[in-house]
Amino acid sequence: MKWIEVIMVRSAGSEIRILTKTLKGLMTDVARGAGRDDIRVFHRENLETDICIVLFHRGKKTHTGGSSLGLRIVTELKSVGLVHHTIWNEVER
Fold first, then answer.
1. Do 67 and 55 touch, CB atoms closer than 8 A?
2. Contact (CB, 8 A) for 51 and 42
3. For the chain, what is the mean pLDDT?
4. Where are the domains of the chain?
5. Topology given in CATH for the domain delimited by 2-89
Protein backbone atom coordinates (compact mmCIF):
# COMPACT_ATOMS: atom_id res chain seq x y z
CA MET A 1 0.00 0.00 0.00
CA LYS A 2 1.23 3.48 -0.84
CA TRP A 3 0.33 6.50 1.23
CA ILE A 4 1.46 10.08 1.55
CA GLU A 5 1.56 12.79 4.17
CA VAL A 6 0.96 16.34 3.06
CA ILE A 7 2.21 19.08 5.35
CA MET A 8 1.40 22.63 4.35
CA VAL A 9 2.76 25.65 6.19
CA ARG A 10 1.90 29.31 5.70
CA SER A 11 4.56 31.54 7.16
CA ALA A 12 4.65 35.29 7.65
CA GLY A 13 7.10 37.00 5.32
CA SER A 14 9.33 37.89 8.25
CA GLU A 15 9.67 34.19 9.14
CA ILE A 16 10.93 33.00 5.74
CA ARG A 17 14.59 32.78 6.85
CA ILE A 18 13.62 30.67 9.87
CA LEU A 19 11.39 28.50 7.68
CA THR A 20 14.17 28.01 5.11
CA LYS A 21 16.72 27.14 7.82
CA THR A 22 14.31 24.67 9.45
CA LEU A 23 13.54 22.99 6.12
CA LYS A 24 17.22 22.67 5.19
CA GLY A 25 17.95 21.07 8.57
CA LEU A 26 15.08 18.62 8.18
CA MET A 27 16.11 17.71 4.63
CA THR A 28 19.67 17.03 5.84
CA ASP A 29 18.34 14.77 8.58
CA VAL A 30 16.13 12.90 6.12
CA ALA A 31 19.01 12.45 3.66
CA ARG A 32 21.08 10.86 6.45
CA GLY A 33 18.30 8.47 7.47
CA ALA A 34 18.80 5.08 5.87
CA GLY A 35 15.73 3.49 4.32
CA ARG A 36 13.68 6.68 4.28
CA ASP A 37 10.96 7.01 1.71
CA ASP A 38 10.90 9.96 -0.66
CA ILE A 39 10.28 13.53 0.50
CA ARG A 40 9.52 16.50 -1.75
CA VAL A 41 9.20 20.18 -0.87
CA PHE A 42 7.25 22.69 -2.96
CA HIS A 43 6.51 26.38 -2.61
CA ARG A 44 3.43 28.07 -3.91
CA GLU A 45 3.76 29.91 -7.22
CA ASN A 46 4.59 33.57 -6.55
CA LEU A 47 4.38 33.07 -2.78
CA GLU A 48 7.58 31.68 -1.20
CA THR A 49 6.09 31.71 2.29
CA ASP A 50 3.58 28.95 1.46
CA ILE A 51 5.36 25.58 1.59
CA CYS A 52 4.03 22.08 0.89
CA ILE A 53 5.99 19.03 2.02
CA VAL A 54 4.98 15.63 0.68
CA LEU A 55 6.28 12.45 2.31
CA PHE A 56 5.84 9.29 0.24
CA HIS A 57 5.49 5.99 2.12
CA ARG A 58 5.01 2.30 1.41
CA GLY A 59 3.75 -0.11 4.00
CA LYS A 60 1.11 -2.59 4.98
CA LYS A 61 -0.83 0.13 6.78
CA THR A 62 -0.82 3.85 7.32
CA HIS A 63 0.07 5.55 10.54
CA THR A 64 -3.23 7.18 11.51
CA GLY A 65 -1.70 10.31 13.00
CA GLY A 66 1.24 10.40 10.62
CA SER A 67 4.77 9.03 10.55
CA SER A 68 7.33 9.95 13.19
CA LEU A 69 9.13 12.08 10.59
CA GLY A 70 5.89 13.81 9.59
CA LEU A 71 5.00 14.55 13.19
CA ARG A 72 8.50 15.91 13.82
CA ILE A 73 8.24 18.21 10.82
CA VAL A 74 4.82 19.45 11.98
CA THR A 75 6.14 20.15 15.47
CA GLU A 76 9.15 22.09 14.19
CA LEU A 77 7.17 24.12 11.66
CA LYS A 78 4.48 25.23 14.11
CA SER A 79 6.92 27.82 15.42
CA VAL A 80 7.08 29.59 12.03
CA GLY A 81 3.49 29.56 10.81
CA LEU A 82 0.14 27.87 10.38
CA VAL A 83 0.49 24.14 9.69
CA HIS A 84 -2.00 21.74 8.08
CA HIS A 85 -1.15 17.99 8.14
CA THR A 86 -3.14 15.31 6.27
CA ILE A 87 -2.73 11.61 5.44
CA TRP A 88 -3.75 10.24 2.04
CA ASN A 89 -4.07 6.58 1.00
CA GLU A 90 -3.59 5.53 -2.60
CA VAL A 91 -6.74 4.25 -4.26
CA GLU A 92 -6.23 0.63 -5.28
CA ARG A 93 -6.93 -0.12 -8.93
1. yes
2. yes
3. 82
4. 2-89
5. Alpha-Beta Plaits (3.30.70)
